[in-house]
Structures are given as C-alpha cells and as structure tokens.
Amino acid sequence: MNKEEQVLTGFRDLFNKLVWLNKGKMENSLKGYKPSEVHCIEYIEKNVDSNVTKLAESFYMTRGAISKITKQLLKKGLIESYRKPDNKKEIYFRLTEKGKVIYNIHEDLHKEFQERDKAVFEQVTEEQFDSMLSFVETYSRHLDAEIKKRGISIEPEQI
Fold first, then answer.
1. CA atoms of 16 and 10, how far apart (whole Å)
2. What is the mean pLDDT of residues 136-151?
3. pLDDT (0 to 100) of residue 87
4. Each residue of 23-81: pLDDT tens digit?
5. At what angle do helices 52-59 and 63-75 cross, to 10 degrees?
6. CB 45 within 8 A of CB 103
7. What is the pLDDT of residue 22?
8. 102 vs 40: CA distance, rounded Å
9. How far is Cα 96 from Cα 81, in angstroms, rounded to an integer?
10. What DSSP letter does each residue of 72-130 carry, written as one string?
C-alpha cells in the first residue's frame, strides 16, 4: 500500500472508529432523534438565517431531502420557521427551546469526546496541525473542483 492509500485508509479508519466509539452514547443521550436531525439542529443554531438551501449545500444533500428533515423537526417542535419582513418568499429556521435542549446535549457530548481524546491532541505541535489543516484544505478544494466538473454546484458554508 502506497502512502496515498495509507492516508486515505487511515482517515476512513479514524472516522469509522470515532463513529463506533461515539455512537452508543449519542444514541442513548439523543434517543428518538436521527443523526441528520441533530446535525440540522446544530447547523441552525450556529448559522443565522438558516434555510433549506443553506442546509442542503452544507450537508451535500438535495433540497428535497432537507425539506423532509426540517418538516420532521417542525413537527417535533424542535425548530420554528420565520420570514424576514424584506423577503416574504424565503423561509428560515431557528431553534425552539426544545431544540436548544437537544443542541446542548449534542454539544456536551462533543465536549466529552474532546476531553477523552485531549491527550492525543496535546501532543500535536502547531506545525503538525498546520500541515494537517493545509492538506485537508488542499484535498477539499480538489474534491470541490471534481464536484464542479460533474456539473454539481455545491459550495458549503463553514460551520
């Protein structure tokens, strides 16, 4: 296996291990909520004037798929929709108090997982972080270009 394959396999394995380690606690703490719903809640809380288009771009999903998720969140009373006085056409979302509870549970879990993994990250130098971040940004730009070549225009906002 060459180094490129080792890096990609390493990323995949890291991701899979993180998901596996975190899954049980996430599912127990957020029982009754799908990961896609929780991630939409997180995005809505962290991004002002969230709408279907912004959510779809951020999650690389269709607007139809996001509409389905937001309808469930509205039905569960986790988000509410609103319109701006100067734009009656566009529908935006914000969290309800119930949605903020779910958001806070999710954030607390992330903090717990960060604390668990802190020992590893404390050993990483600034130079190593910069190198990793540079690689991730370069590879991401490459993948964006490949997506664009296929005629798909998705430009997610940073969370």
1. 10
2. 89
3. 82
4. 999 999 999 999 999 999 999 999 999 999 999 989 989 999 999 999 999 999 999 99
5. 120
6. yes
7. 94
8. 11
9. 10
10. HHHHTTSEEEEEETTEEEEEEEEE-HHHHHHHHHHHHHHHHHHHHHHHHHTTS-HHHHH
Tokens of 55: 């959510």
Which amino acid would we find at residue 100? K
Residue 135 reports pLDDT greater than 60: yes
Cα dihedral 110, 113, 115, 119 in deg (nearest 10): -140
Contact yes or no for 68/78 (Cβ under 8 A): no
Single pTM value for the model = 0.83
- Count the helices and strands in the chain (H runs, E runs): 6, 2
